[in-house]
Amino acid sequence: MKKSLATFAALTALTVAAQADNALQTYQQQAKTLLTTLENKGKNIEAASAELVNTSLPIVDQFIVKYPECSEYLGALKKAASVIPTLPLEEIESGYHADGKLPPLKNAQCYHAKDLLVHPATVQAMAKIGIKTDEQWESAEHEIEEVIEHFSQVELAMKPVASAE
After folding, report:
1. Domain boundary assignment for the chain
2. Would you report the helix, strand and coil content of the chain in percent, each value rounded to 5?
3. Would you state the pLDDT for residue 18?
4. Are 62 and 20 in contact (CB under 8 A)?
5. Which of 118, 149, 104 is nearest to 56 (CA)?
6. 42 by DSSP, 3-state: which?
7. 71-80 and 108-129 are packed helices; what angle lies between their axes, rounded to 10 degrees?
8. Residues 165, 152: Cα–Cα separation, whole Å
């Protein structure tokens, strides 16, 4: 019985790790594609950034499983995920980039996971308003460049810890 529980736990951990890897790969590809689209002042920015927000949600869920101390902080973020892109940019900045509307941060790792959602949601809000000037395009690009940097931290944090057996 103990052996089957251990086997089940190991298989479950492998399944979760595989799902996390797949979600991370998808997120990384979507972020890079969105960045290229922004660099080329392309179309469908709002839809592409919304897709990136949606792709971030299962990663945030998996992050909460691995880092339960992030559950309150990231849970509050997830509840606001559909609202954030509708807010004025200043409110997104103060409320979610600067954490004004989120519970206290208990682990710095939580911050990186948060940004996988907040940065593309900011671009989604910018696109909804209209990205017209060179400065606005550069600002949107910067949001995605920054999320790619946070992504590498999340990817590292999600790697399975080697057991000492």
Report:
1. 2-158
2. 80, 0, 20
3. 57
4. yes
5. 118
6. coil
7. 10
8. 28
